[in-house]
Amino acid sequence: HTDALLDLLVKCENKVQTRIKIGLNSKMPSRFPPVVFYTPKELGGLGMLSMGHILIPQSDLRYSKQTETGITHYRSGLSHEEDQLIPNLYRYIQTWEAEFVDSQRVWAEYALKRQEANAQNRRLTLEDLEDAWDRGIPRINTLFQKDRHTLAFDKGWRVRQDFKQYNIMRQNPFWW
Length: 176
Prior knowledge:
176 residues, mainly alpha, 2 domains
């Protein structure tokens, strides 16, 4: 997580909102409170996920002290002292470093569980791997897909594609 990435995401989020406002032929802030953008689609909003509006403004916190429910709405661009945080998408994305460390741990656990299963002459079950099913790079669940044998032979595919441009002298339209 870098500040530059967060700034870029906030900028893009604001561009999307501005494009929506222009499409409706109005940029008047009072017509577009944040609830319009961030409310789930099931409740009539646009269902956007926020990346940039991290702090709840002080002016909105005075209402949370009057009620039992706490904070439900907020305005962006204001500041406050208590640093109460809005749950936004940025907090739920793991950093690459954490993802790699977690991946090493998960694959080491998988190797141990597989050794135990082989020693007991049994197969690994979903219950054995349930806590690590959607973790690791590549994900543990890829071992249990129909095309797992193809995946085993295709290690390093992205790197090979990158270096192929120096061997083959024609344009690759699918470089992205």
